[in-house]
Amino acid sequence: MLSTEMAVALNGHLNTELYSAHLYLSMSSYANFLGLKGAANWFMVQYQEEMVHFTKFYDYINSQGEHVKLGPLDAPPSEFANLLAMFQKTIEHETHITKCINDLTELAVQQKDHATQIFLQWFITEQIEEEENDREIIGKLKLVGDNGYGLLMIDTELGARVFTP
Ligand code: OFO
């Protein structure tokens, strides 16, 4: 059973995961608009992953005898300067998510809520991977700069990403 404070915090984060999904769906569409089909695929897979994260919170809250409270979501940005700006926005957002997960974990520790601590472990590991992937892509994009051939190579690489639930 969750404390009221923990239930509110988990519900808040569930809504943040849904915002993440919308952010990457928006980026996928914009990448497609720019003609970057590979990047559009990468962000669509990211959207699908965020929906998995959202569903994990949804299932956990329900399994603890609580119910989900969906809130209003801000609209994500719908235009970006270029692909590098999209990935810079991505890592900035993921760094924020990592902090949110750390704060939730801290609360669970304070409350001696071991079940929630175990639930959050998966997300702690996931955030390491998310940030690492983003940093790698940003590094490559900075290397190629405005070189069209380099950008197409990276776009092809991003097109190979597959959703694995
Ligand atoms: Fe759900 O990890 Fe990204 O936001």
Automatic annotation (TrEMBL):
Source organism, top-level taxon: Bacteria
Name this polypeptide is given: Ferritin
GO terms for MF: ferric iron binding; ferrous iron binding; ferroxidase activity; identical protein binding
Annotated GO biological process: intracellular iron ion homeostasis; iron ion transport
Places the protein is found: Cytoplasm
Function of the protein: Iron-storage protein.
Top-level EC class as recorded in UniProt: oxidoreductase
Catalytic activity, as annotated: 4 Fe(2+) + O2 + 6 H2O = 4 iron(III) oxide-hydroxide + 12 H(+)
EC numbers, comma separated: 1.16.3.2
PANTHER family linked to this entry: BACTERIAL NON-HEME FERRITIN, FERRITIN
Cellular component, GO, one term: cytosol
Native organism taxonomy: Bacteria, Pseudomonadati, Thermodesulfobacteriota, Desulfuromonadia, Geobacterales
Residues annotated for Fe cation binding in this entry: E17, E50, H53, E94, Q127
Keywords for this protein: Cytoplasm, Iron, Iron storage, Metal-binding, Oxidoreductase
Record bears the keyword Iron: yes
Predominant cellular place of this UniProt entry's protein: cytoplasm
Family, as annotated: Belongs to the ferritin family. Prokaryotic subfamily.
Pfam families given in the database record: Ferritin
Domain annotation Ferritin-like diiron: ranges: 1-145
